[in-house]
């Protein structure tokens, strides 16, 4: 494929998705070929340990619009997604997961809505999550309620990483200082004109989920600490609550001393020590999270390393290693470090 920018880029981050790749390629290619638009599919292999890389190479031989980017190590879903967005070239860019829970057929509706209403962002909103477990629906609902309190109502409820961005919106993301932003929060924060396309969420087509409870909790913590100082304010309020409780205990101690019942006050002292210790540890933990983020930002390490790009072009990638942002061939870089 030449260097002329296509009308549409579809970014697909993937990790150990060999079992679902044939199904994904069949459905996605059928949809994109039917759009009568020039397009590229940017598949980002996030350091897979199965046969995903080999399967992508085989697909590329039969699918010229498929572009394969391999990260040198597993960097996480958001980093892989950001890598694909930053290296895409399309006038519009759609991001979609490889598990086919978000239907590729919705891409046509997203593109049509963006063009008809001159929108820079179109969210894919899950109208029905009955295919998910009750626990998944409960935790996802709690996550989106919390995120909407941080970002505001500009963030649609039940909108994940299935979205369409205009080239203007992608360039705005490129200009942000964060190396690996949580896009579910940052994209609504940009404030570009946006719309929604609703769809029914399907079951995973094949393979196992890559978002167990531990990663869901990590995403929630990353979302909160990367976007808001609200937890620090929680620590402040807990500190004020602790001061109030201590003031009441001081009054109780004075009254007990005045009435000659000082010995009987040991339970209140024990409660006060335990309460203040817990509050202090919680506050230190919250401060540690933010200090850790400051330390990571000062190190200025890239969020990911590009091992290879089947069609590198001349784009600048703000999240990659410094030598890669300067325009060097990433494959040469791999060889030169041996």
TrEMBL record:
Compartment(s): Membrane
**Which spans are transmembrane here?**
237-259, 265-287
Q: Please tell me whether the keyword Plastid is annotated for this protein.
A: no
| A GO MF label | transferase activity
Domain Glycosyltransferase 2-like, which positions?
9-173
Sorted alphabetically, which CDD domains does this protein's record hold?
A: DPM1_like_bac
Q: What is its main location?
A: membrane
For whether the record's keyword set contains Glycosyltransferase, the answer is yes
Q: Per UniProt, what is the membrane topology? A: Multi-pass membrane protein
Which InterPro entries did the record assign?
A: Glyco_trans_2-like (IPR001173), Glycosyltransferase_2 (IPR050256), Nucleotide-diphossugar_trans (IPR029044)
Question: Which controlled-vocabulary keywords does the entry list?
Answer: Glycosyltransferase, Membrane, Transferase, Transmembrane, Transmembrane helix
Source domain of life: Bacteria
The region called Disordered is annotated at 314-338
Which Pfam family, any one, appears in the UniProt record? Glycos_transf_2
Q: Give the UniProt family note.
A: Belongs to the glycosyltransferase 2 family.
Its name, as the record gives it, is Glucosyl transferase
């Amino acid at each position: 494929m030449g260097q002329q920018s296509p009308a549409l880029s579809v970014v697909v981050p993937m990790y150990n998705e060999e079992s679902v790749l044939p199904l994904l390629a069949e459905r996605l290619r059928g949809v994109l070929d039917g759009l009568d638009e020039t397009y590229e599919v940017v598949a980002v292999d996030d350091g897979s340990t199965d046969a995903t890389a080999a399967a992508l190479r085989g697909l590329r031989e039969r699918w010229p619009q498929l572009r394969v980017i391999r990260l040198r190590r597993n960097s996480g879903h958001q980093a892989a997604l950001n890598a694909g967005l930053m290296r895409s070239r399309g006038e519009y860019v759609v991001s979609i997961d490889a598990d086919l829970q978000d239907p590729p057929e919705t891409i046509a509706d997203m593109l049509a809505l963006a063009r008809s209403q001159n929108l820079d962002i179109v969210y894919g909103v899950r109208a029905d999550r009955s295919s998910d477990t009750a626990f998944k629906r409960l935790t996802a609902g709690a996550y989106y309620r919390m995120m909407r309190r941080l970002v505001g109502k500009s963030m649609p409820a039940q909108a994940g990483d299935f979205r369409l961005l205009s080239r203007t919106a992608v360039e705005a993301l490129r200009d942000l200082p964060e190396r690996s932003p949580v896009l579910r929060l940052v994209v609504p924060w940009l404030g570009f004109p946006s719309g929604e396309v609703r769809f029914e969420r399907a079951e995973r087509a094949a393979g196992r989920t890559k978002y167990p409870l531990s990663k869901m909790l990590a995403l929630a913590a990353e979302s909160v600490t990367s976007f808001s100082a609200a937890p620090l304010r929680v620590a402040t309020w807990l500190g004020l609550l602790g001061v109030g409780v201590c003031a009441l205990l001081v009054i109780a101690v004075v009254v007990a001393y005045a009435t000659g019942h000082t010995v009987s006050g040991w339970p209140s002292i024990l409660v006060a020590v335990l309460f203040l210790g817990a509050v202090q540890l919680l506050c230190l933990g919250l401060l540690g999270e933010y200090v850790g983020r400051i330390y990571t930002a000062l190190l200025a390490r890239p969020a990911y390393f590009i091992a290879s790009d089947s069609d590198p072009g001349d784009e600048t990638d703000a999240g990659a290693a410094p030598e890669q942002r300067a325009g060097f061939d990433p494959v040469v870089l791999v060889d030169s470090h041996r």
